[in-house]
């Protein structure tokens, strides 16, 4: 507030007119001085303050302009002072304004201030009139502000200039209050760039882009601002997202722009990734915070993987010799998958691998080679673990002859096992080159199962080998000689009857036996005739008008059994034979005839309940010549043809069920018989002493089984020969009673076999394209045997005969022959 005009008199007003005379002026001035002096005295004496007597000066401060650019043109604070009672008489024209600087800007750092030395601003005052003692005065002054440039991102800053007091230099009175202030803004010339992920999630499936937003602290100037950036994190340009330029232009007048991230779909199973964008310093801006941002790129769902065997499984190994490569293929629903790591490990056996990890090639294949040690079983696992899951497969390999080396096998079983040892790897190799037939694949599967268990389950494997060995294959060859003997024995019986005088039509009844011994009907008739002549219970036959022609029918039923041996299965059999023929007595000592025979045989095989059924037809020529009543010669020639139906059951635990292999095949045989004998007749008793040579040759066709899938066999054709000699004697006697003539009899024979009859049976598995064969030894024929028999017959009236007998064979190995024979005969 002004203090300098408080003592002014009312009569002395400022603004008096110029032109008063000097004395008047001088007087007036003197009076004014006197008044100022008086005022000073009053002031000193504590009278009324000067400030209360006058109006305060008005002070304003204005910022011009209100904002200036950092490093740009200067600005100024304009200070204006207006005093209505400024002392005109003082020898001064200024007012000193005390000022202070404030605000966020730092002096000499952010700006330079000029015009306020010592924080005092001298304001030159101008009076409205010079002819005054106190008058209205005003003045202005400026404080220059020069903004300083820097590279700091500080934002806008302020400079505040405030005044507090005013004083007149040289006028020793207290300063008056003149409070005013103004603010000037220094606009930061450096723009700040920052970044955020405005859309932080992108996706490959479904395709969905993400986005970054780059912002400036102020609008971009003319030409825009180019913000550069770098990329980082796990996402790869060109693989996971479309490549970015690394620079973003923010147009003039804009404060932001976006970076769009477009994912690349890629392969199924591509992983989730992250993309980080980091701003880099550049022209016209600085990098603020946040300086970087990250978005995630969601990958595609992985397709399920599969790992399959290409080749190398189920190989046969030789110790320390590398195997063929184990090869696997990795695939998904789109096909082969390359670049995946396959891990290999030996899970069974003492072998070593060429590698423990291999990578799938363009075909999706990877491989490893096993060098086996000294064990018999090997297993190698291949494992693939990747997007899409973990999958594995196992290769197996076995010793080269694991089946044939099993303990406890018979020679035939070992031969079959050896065939399996050979065919299994060969079939496996074939299957890796081309598709196997259903039968071949089944054979390979069964072979693999046996071999795979040969190191851990010997009992089950041995059981399987036994079941697969067709030891019953020799049964037809054994039976074909038995069938031929039925017809020969029936013919021998007829010749004996002829020698005893049989004539006309003779239904000689039914002969039932085991082996070859039958009741000699002719001898019975002779004994009966003698019993009749002595008055027995039956009457003599009347003469037959065609006594040189004879017709007969003879039947024979036999059954027996054979024990199982090392080489052959056991079996039980029964045979029904019928022989019908006609003969003619050319002279009293020569009879020749022809006959046809039929025999049906059923065989039950002990092994797993198999069976063999055979039907045989035969044609025979026979004859006898006796130059005397007691000595005779006899002979026959027989040719027969046979048909067989065979069922072979296959059952073992590793197979899991029972299979039946069926076969149909044919055969034929011929038999030659030559004999001689001598009959002694003493009353009602007959002693027949005889000797015979018999030769039989039989053959069976080869055959192929059906019905057991891969386990069907092919059995080669078989041949059998027998040459035997028979020496025997039979005693018969007739005893007459009131009801019938009884004929007890007994006999003994010795038969010697000259042939061995132990030829091998050859065969192979029907579904083995390489036909690895096996050979089955057979039992030799018994060299010598003794037959003993007893019987009882009864001759009733009108040609009726009944009989029963028992026979046993002694000295046969693994073969039993016991006959119980019963029958009746009637003659017409």
UniProtKB/TrEMBL annotation:
Name assigned to this protein: Outer membrane autotransporter barrel domain-containing protein
Annotated Basic and acidic residues bias: 9-20
Alphabetical list of Pfam families matching this protein: Autotransporter (PF03797)
InterPro entries: Autotransporte_beta (IPR005546), Autotransporte_beta_dom_sf (IPR036709), CalX-like_sf (IPR038081), Invasin/intimin_cell_adhesion (IPR008964), OM_autotransptr_brl_dom (IPR006315)
Autotransporter domain location: 536-828
Native source species: Thiocapsa roseopersicina
Region (Disordered): 1-23
Gene3D superfamilies: 2.60.40.2030, Autotransporter beta-domain
NCBIfam families in the cross-refs: autotrans_barl (TIGR01414)
GO cellular component terms, A-Z: outer membrane
């Amino acid at each position: 507030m002004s203090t300098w005009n408080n003592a002014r008199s009312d009569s002395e007003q400022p603004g008096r007119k110029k032109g008063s005379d000097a004395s008047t002026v001088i007087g007036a001035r003197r009076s004014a001085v006197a008044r100022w002096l008086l005022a000073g005295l009053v002031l000193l004496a504590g009278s009324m303050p000067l400030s209360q007597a006058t109006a305060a000066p008005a002070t304003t401060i204005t910022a011009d302009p209100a904002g200036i650019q950092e490093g740009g043109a200067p600005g100024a604070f304009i200070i204006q002072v207006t005093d209505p009672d400024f002392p005109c008489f003082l020898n001064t024209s200024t007012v000193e304004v005390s000022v202070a600087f404030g605000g966020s800007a730092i002096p000499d750092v952010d700006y330079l201030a000029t015009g306020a030395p010592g924080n005092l601003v001298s304001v030159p005052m101008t009076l409205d009139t010079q002819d005054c003692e106190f008058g209205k005065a005003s003045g202005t002054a400026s404080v220059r502000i020069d903004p300083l440039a820097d590279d700091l991102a500080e934002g806008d800053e302020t400079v505040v200039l405030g005044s507090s007091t005013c004083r007149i230099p040289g006028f020793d009175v207290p300063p008056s209050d003149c409070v005013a202030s103004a603010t000037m803004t220094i606009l930061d010339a450096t723009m700040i760039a920052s970044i955020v992920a405005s859309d932080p999630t992108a996706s490959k499936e479904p395709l969905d882009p993400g986005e970054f937003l780059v912002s400036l602290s102020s609008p971009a100037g003319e030409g825009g601002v180019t913000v550069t950036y770098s990329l980082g994190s796990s996402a790869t340009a060109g693989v996971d997202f479309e490549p970015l330029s690394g620079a973003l232009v923010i147009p003039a007048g804009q404060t932001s722009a976006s970076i769009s991230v477009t994912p690349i779909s890629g392969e199924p199973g591509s992983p989730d990734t992250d993309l980080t964008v980091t701003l880099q310093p550049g022209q016209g801006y600085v990098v603020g915070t946040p300086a970087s941002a990250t978005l995630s790129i969601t990958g595609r769902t992985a397709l399920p993987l599969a790992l399959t065997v290409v080749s190398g499984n189920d190989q046969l190994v030789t110790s320390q010799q590398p195997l063929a490569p184990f090869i696997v293929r990795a695939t998904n629903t789109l096909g082969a998958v390359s670049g995946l790591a396959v891990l290999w490990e030996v899970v069974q056996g003492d072998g070593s691998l060429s590698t423990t990890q291999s990578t799938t090639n363009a075909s999706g294949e990877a491989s490893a080679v096993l060098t086996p040690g000294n064990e018999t079983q090997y297993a190698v696992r291949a494992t693939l673990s990747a997007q899409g899951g973990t999958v594995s497969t196992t290769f197996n390999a076995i010793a080269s002859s694991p089946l044939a080396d099993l303990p406890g096998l018979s020679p035939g079983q070992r031969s079959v096992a050896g065939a399996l040892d050979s065919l299994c790897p060969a079939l496996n190799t074939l299957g890796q080159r081309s598709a196997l037939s259903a039968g071949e694949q089944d054979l390979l599967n069964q072979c693999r199962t046996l071999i795979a268990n040969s190191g851990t389950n010997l009992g089950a494997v041995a059981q399987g080998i036994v079941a697969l060995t067709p030891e019953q294959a020799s049964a037809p060859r054994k039976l074909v000689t038995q069938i031929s003997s039925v017809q020969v024995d029936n013919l021998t019986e007829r010749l004996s009857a002829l020698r005893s005088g049989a004539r006309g039509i003779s239904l000689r009844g039914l002969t039932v036996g085991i082996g070859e011994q039958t009741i000699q009907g002719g001898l019975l008739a002779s004994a009966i005739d003698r019993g009749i002549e002595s008055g027995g219970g039956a009457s003599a036959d009347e003469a037959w008008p065609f006594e040189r022609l004879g017709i007969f029918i003879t039947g024979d039923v036999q059954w027996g059994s054979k024990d199982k041996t090392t080489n052959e299965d056991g079996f039980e059999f029964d045979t029904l034979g019928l022989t019908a023929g006609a003969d003619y007595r050319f002279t009293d000592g020569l009879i020749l005839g022809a006959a046809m025979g039929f025999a049906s045989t059923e065989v039950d095989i002990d092994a797993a309940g198999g069976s063999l059924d055979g039907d045989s037809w035969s044609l025979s020529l026979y004859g006898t010549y006796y130059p005397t009543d007691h000595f005779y010669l006899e002979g026959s020639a027989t040719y027969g043809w046979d048909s067989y139906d065979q069922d072979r059951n296959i059952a073992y635990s590793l197979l899991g069920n029972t299979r039946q292999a069926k076969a149909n095949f044919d055969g034929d045989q011929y038999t030659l018989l030559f004999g001689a004998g001598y009959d002694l007749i003493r009353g009602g008793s007959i002693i027949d002493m005889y000797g015979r040579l018999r030769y039989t040759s039989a053959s069976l066709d080869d055959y192929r089984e059906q019905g057991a899938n891969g386990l069907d066999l092919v059995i080669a054709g078989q041949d059998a020969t027998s040459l035997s000699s028979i020496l025997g004697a039979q005693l018969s006697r007739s005893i007459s009673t009131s009801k019938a003539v009884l004929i007890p009899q007994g006999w003994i024979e010795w038969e010697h076999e000259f042939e061995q009859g132990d030829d091998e049976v050859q065969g192979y598995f029907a579904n083995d394209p390489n036909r690895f064969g096996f050979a089955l030894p057979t039992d030799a024929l018994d060299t010598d045997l003794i037959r003993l028999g007893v019987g009882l017959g009864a001759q009733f009236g009108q040609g009726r005969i009944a009989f029963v007998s028992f026979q046993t064979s002694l000295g046969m190995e693994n073969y039993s022959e016991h006959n119980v024979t019963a029958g009746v005969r009637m003659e017409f």
